[in-house]
């Protein structure tokens, strides 16, 4: 798989004196995420934190609150919209919770590969989505990074859709629920931070996430198989409160945007380098890695995605996604 290079570019206090002249006072702000410190996204945010401080001569100081300490991904986005925090990084939670006309940007089997999806997220549709979020929620998309293909984990091999029959799988958005129900699974929601325990206790039989998340959250410790369904190309999205961003001085905003873009390039390289290594580490733990019949899953999913898009998504979105190949 070929990866791209990046082109994009209060209860938690913001002790900010914004739009200041040269030698401005320190701007302290908070980044919240439900991902834990082992996740590639949080490693990238630590990298960004250092870049921000170094390039601004200490003016831009970011505090990172990870591991779901501020709540679920949706709750974190709500806090971001309210300027209770100023920055976040997550998977595409926003399209399923706030920007529903754009849900199909994270639909099953709509991308040929990682580069295709990246062109969509960083191109015309991505800009359109960012404008929608700014208009409706005071949120700006500040960066997009590759997260990996989503795959299934379970306690038995999942080679064909029928192997999911009757398995309770953690799924958190309506379209994915429809798709996995069509595979024969029993989809249901659960907060990310509770998933490890639910798998260990047998409350859920299965889950689906990118390899990096499976490793970071140690889901392989409580599952017997990693099943390479590759049903969604997934991306990290960096989001910023628009009022906060607009309140920075011109120089601070320039540093913020430039270092965000550099961080996404750094993150993409990290994922490219380590994704295969993480899968090898999971294999070493005794977990079976299963090559699933991807075309069989795609055949079932495609008509469901088309029907869902026609009823719920922005008109023409699937055509625009296909045109970005």
From TrEMBL:
Residues 1-24 form the signal peptide. Keywords: Signal, Transport. One of its GO terms (cellular component) is outer membrane-bounded periplasmic space. Transmembrane segments: none annotated. The keyword Transport applies. The keyword Transport applies. It comes from the Bacteria. It holds the Pfam family DctP. One of its GO terms (biological process) is transmembrane transport. Belongs to the bacterial solute-binding protein 7 family. PANTHER family: C4-DICARBOXYLATE-BINDING PROTEIN DCTB, PTHR33376. This is TRAP transporter substrate-binding protein. The lineage of its organism: Bacteria, Pseudomonadati, Pseudomonadota, Alphaproteobacteria, Hyphomicrobiales.
């Amino acid at each position: 798989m070929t990866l791209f290079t990046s082109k994009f570019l209060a209860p938690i206090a913001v002790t900010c004196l914004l739009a200041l002249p040269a030698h401005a006072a320190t701007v302290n702000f908070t980044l919240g995420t439900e991902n834990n410190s082992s996740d590639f996204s949080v490693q990238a945010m630590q990298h960004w934190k250092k870049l921000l401080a170094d390039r601004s001569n200490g003016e831009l100081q970011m505090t990172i609150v990870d591991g779901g300490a501020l709540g679920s991904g949706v709750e974190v986005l709500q806090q971001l919209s309210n300027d209770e925090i100023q920055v976040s990084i997550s998977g595409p939670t926003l399209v399923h919770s706030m920007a529903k006309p754009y849900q199909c940007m994270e639909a099953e089997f709509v991308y040929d590969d990682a580069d295709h999806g990246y062109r969509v997220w960083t191109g015309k549709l991505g800009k359109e989505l960012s404008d929608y979020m700014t208009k409706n929620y005071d949120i700006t998309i500040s960066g997009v990074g590759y997260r990996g293909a989503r795959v299934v984990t379970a306690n038995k091999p999942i080679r064909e859709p029928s192997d999911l029959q009757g398995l309770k799988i953690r799924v958190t958005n309506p379209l994915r629920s429809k798709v996995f129900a069509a595979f024969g699974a029993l989809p249901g929601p659960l907060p990310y931070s509770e998933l490890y325990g639910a798998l260990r206790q047998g409350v859920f039989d299965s889950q689906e996430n990118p390899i990096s998340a499976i490793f970071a959250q140690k889901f392989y410790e409580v599952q017997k198989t990693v099943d390479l369904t590759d049903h969604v190309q997934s991306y990290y999205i960096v989001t910023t409160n628009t009022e906060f961003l607009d309140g920075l001085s011109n120089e601070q905003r320039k540093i913020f945007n430039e270092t965000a873009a550099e961080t996404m390039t750094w993150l993409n390289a990290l994922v490219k380098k380590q994704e295969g290594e993480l899968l090898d580490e999971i294999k070493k733990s005794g977990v079976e890695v299963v090559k699933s019949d991807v075309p069989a899953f795609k055949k079932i999913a495609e008509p469901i995605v088309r029907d869902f898009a026609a009823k719920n998504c922005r008109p023409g979105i699937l055509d625009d996604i296909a045109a970005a190949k």
